Amino acid sequence: MDPSQQWPYPQQGQPGPQYPQQGQPGPQYPPQQPGPQYPPQQPAPQQYPPQQPAPQQYPPQYQPPQQPNYGNQPYSAAPYNIAPNSAAPYSGPPANAYQPPATGMLPVPPPSRSKLPMVVISAVVLLAVLAVSIVVVALSKDKKADPVAGPSTAPASQAGPVDSCLVGKWNQTGFQKTVDFAGTDIEKREGIGKVKMVGAGKVWTINADGSAIEDDTKFVYSGKDDKGRTITGTFQGTAEWQVKTVGRTIEYAGKESDAAVVFTVDGRKAGTITLEPNLDPVNYTCVGDVWRTTPPTEPDTFARYDRVK
After folding, report:
1. Which residues of the chain have pLDDT under 50?
2. Helix (H/G/I), strand (E/B), else coil: 213
3. Are residues 175 and 303 in the same domain?
């Protein structure tokens, strides 16, 4: 510094600018004055204009308080606290938007639609009742018209000891039986074993009291033995019986018999066997004009009889 500027008038004793220590500010210290050196601090509120209209965007949900203007202080970041609430407006309107369809989707037609199934069910039940009634009436008429149309069982209404279906005269139209000649004179002389015999011609007459006559005078059967020879049996005589039916079984009680059978081998007489009454029960069926018998222990043996008219 120039010495002439520090001590300009030492003789007069007047104070001057050379005494800056006394605390008097002087023009040589302009940097100490605050003011326009910090202009960026003043327009702080203008730096965030988008933050002020936030209450106008979502008035129903949240109205933030007005932030005071502090002049030189920077604007507070408190308005950003509403960010978590910003999702509320978006969750509210969709719920309100779907409420009208919910009330509109309530179906009213079901009560009217349920009437049709009830009508259909009622009609079906009525038809079923009518059908059952018709069937019952038809069955009743059939039973009155033809009381012996079905297979004979143990009839509860059986008037006598024998099934009424069997009462009458019957002609044998079919017969099959395996005859065993073992132990007979014919077996010893001719060497005949078992032969399946097939024939017809027997006549049965059965009365309502159970008395019956078996006429064998026209009964003939025949078959071939294991040697290929033709064995023929011709019956003769009659037998009297007392029969009764139990369930589907015929039980026999023999009275008198003079029946016999004459056997031939290839047309040559081989011997005669006198028949003894066979008292073994047999199973039977009787349908209309056909009567069949089968021994329970001989499933391959059967006889068929047709009613003589």
Report:
1. 1-12, 14, 16, 19-20, 22-23, 26, 35, 44, 54, 70-71, 73-97, 102-104, 136-137, 141-157
2. strand
3. yes
Q: State the pLDDT at residue 121.
A: 73
Domain coverage including residue 62:
51-90
Tell the residue number behind the tokens 């069937």, with chain if given.
Answer: 135
pLDDT confidence of residue 92: 44
Rounded Cα–Cα distance for residues 271 and 267 (Å): 12
Cβ neighbors of 130 (< 8 A, separation 6 or more) are: none
Q: What is the pLDDT of residue 27?
A: 53
| Model pLDDT, residue 256 | 83
- Per the CB < 8 A criterion, the answer to whether 203 and 182 are in contact is no
Any domain includes 142: no
118: in domain: no
pLDDT at 309 (0 to 100): 86
Query: Could you give the count of Cα atoms lying within 13 Å of 99 in the half-sphere of its Cβ?
Result: 5
Whether residues 61 and 176 fall in one domain? no
Position 28, amino acid: Q
Secondary structure E strands in the chain: 168-180, 194-200, 203-206, 211-215, 220-224, 230-236, 238-246, 249-257, 260-265, 268-274, 282-287, 290-294, 302-307
* Inside any domain, residue 1: no
- What residues contact residue 159 under an 8 Å CB cut-off, 6+ apart? 208
The pLDDT, as a whole number, for residue 277 is: 82
Q: In this structure, are residues 288 and 152 in contact, taking their beta carbons and an 8 Å threshold? A: no
Q: Is residue 292 part of a domain?
A: yes
Cβ–Cβ under 8 Å, residues 192 and 181: yes
Angle at Cα 243 formed by Cα 152 and Cα 172, nearest 5°? 70
